[in-house]
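sorry to bug you again but im stuck and you know this stuff better than me. theres a chain ive been looking at and ive put its sequence and its fold in token form underneath. id like you to explain what the token line says about the fold, in plain words if possible. anything you notice is useful, everything is just below.
___
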Amino acid sequence: MDAQGSTLTNKYAEGYPGQRYYGGCEHADTVEELAIDRAKELWGAEHVNVQPHSGSQANMAVYIAALEPGDKILSLDLTHGGHLSHGHHANFVGEHFEVQHYECDDETGYVDYEGLREQAEQFDPDMIVSGYSAYPREVEWERIQSAAAAVDALHLADIAHITGLVAAGEHDSPVGIADFVTGSTHKTIRAGRGGMVMCGEEWAEAVDKAVIPGMQGGPLMHNIAGKAVGFKEALTPEFEEYAARVVTNAEAMAERLRERGLDLVSGGTDTHLVLADLRPSHPTPPGRTSRGRWRRPASSSTPTRCPARRARRSTPPGSASGRPRSPRGGSPPATAGPSPTASPTWSTRPRTRRCWPPSPRRSTN
């Protein structure tokens, strides 16, 4: 926070270290180089661009660098855990590219990897996007890369939600497997707000040109300073311990929810988030009001839609025509709370009974 609140917020520094359009950027160069070097050490990437203002803009940079308008993208459906920037029709990606979506298995809640491969062979995409915004299980990067290689497609792995888990070794890394890896820098990695792109040297120049002048002007140097500080913290043993507790606490939260009688999408979690499946207990969707039912500070929750309830046309979050059926809770807030050395006692007692199965002891008359 000190880095992000520094006077770097006032500094214009268009360009890259040693190649700025403005003078007096020596300190900005040092800050950005620190962020890049630490990111390379954390994730083992050959090339890192830390200038994207968000994870979505990091994805945009990859599309600009590697694709042409009208090219084909195969990505996970939004209602199955994908992200708007992976090809939703209301997003810029859906406007400029031909997009098809693969899905999760309705029974297991896991990505249908065999279905993905078959769909790739039929659709012949130019790029396959993996990595998701509402998926509680580990992603099998190698299987998706195999499907991409079979149709000569590029592979973009978006690790926005699991950057910290990947850095700490709590989740397998797609770096060195996928052609591009993008992510947010303020979620499980706990660094300055923004995004980043990682790739091999063969794509470095194209990615850098896509960021500036392709889609952005000046970088947000105060945020890049926050990234540099956060990345340094993530290189410590303490961060590895934190990431391990994040996963353990998510598992504990999942267990408490199961004890309360809720079904979970995919049956549990391997990551930092848990998705509750309200369909069995709530035929009528409770909608976004459900987000407040998991008592804070136990988790941070947002509404999403259950994978098995797929609409003909995906509905963006908050749309009145697509009411959420799956509250998404995460363990990082409590894990980083006032007593980070101890696992919190998860409070999943509802403030109201709206999001919980009816008690057999309570009369409904």
